Amino acid sequence: MRMPLVIVLLFFLLGALVDVVICRAVFTRCRRGVTLWRQLALYSSIFFAVCLLAMVAWPKKSATDASFAILMWFLYVYLSVYISKFIFVLLYMIACVPMLWRRKSLSWLTYSGIGMALLTFGLMWWGALINKYNIEIKDVTYPNESLPPTFDGFTIVQLSDMHVGTYGTDTTYLHRLVEKVNSLGADAVVFTGDIVNRSTTELLPFVNTLSELKATFGVFSILGNHDYGDYHSWSSPEAKQQNMVLMRRLQSRMGWKMLNNESATIYAGNDSIVIIGVENIGDPPFPIYGNLDSAYPGDLADDAFKILLSHNPAHWTEDIADSPDKNIALTLSGHTHAMQIELFGLSPAVFRYKTWGGMYGDNDGHSLYVNIGIGEVGMPARIGATPEITLITLKR
Length: 396
Known about the structure:
Number of helices: 9
Radius of gyration: 25 Å
Strand content: 15-25%
Structural class: alpha/beta
Helix content: 25-40%
Distance between the termini: 55 Å
């Protein structure tokens, strides 16, 4: 608990400092209504401090989905206000530097700070109220000379990270997603993990909707780190085990083929390709459930054209890339969400993951595509990082 308390104290101090600077800036320019401004500043500071304390003290694993969602919205309100305030204060303090030499402050920079703060606030709420529902279809062509001739032009739709618990029981968004996917007429659909947030019961309202996903050769899926129930407080190990039993049962009802350390072969004419699905394999602190050797009982170096579904792209980085003994042409992953922030092709995810979104390759013919996901978890917004359907066309 020490680290969270240190972080909370830091946020308190920064928030108080920001509020003091803003109050002084306002008071020096506006002599009327000073008492009212002081009251508003005091009450708003108390409100946001309570929001921050609630975020840290709330028992997250035992919280209901509804209460957890409310908590995330409180945190987001806090961040949208104080990040905007901090940007203003930073530019305002720079504008005041000439006053150290008894010169006038740079008023244009102060007004720029106001504009940047308002822009930041608006951008964050655009991400929370609008952009997180703006589904984007990304067309990706994957050429490989080893692709069997019959599969030239074979199309795969990749979906990832739905986190359906975020939507409660409202199927509107996912119904629109299914319609978009079906309109593409793909040969296969693959889902690369994190269908729920914490518990399989979140999936119950969406079974009928997701069962409408159609593809010529079917829908294949794997599990992500959120799908095991590790973020939920269970009454017993048996209850957690039943959670996984229900996950398999519901995906079967949806008509999805779960590949839990398994492989499936797709045949077309005299040719075939293999889809390998591993359970979650990732870097700490995420548990490792997957086993690539079990998922493909043959020789990974053989000539079969293989596509690997692995939720966390760190698996590709650490175990597939630059490994000539693993003849896996293409790996499809998700997990990163691009940290739900991407502007002008830049994302803070780059500081956490070497491979956070899009196509990557090595010198041994291994390729990786990272889908940045459909849903959101934690932060109830997508600031850029638009929800993604990936349409991959295999070409010789």
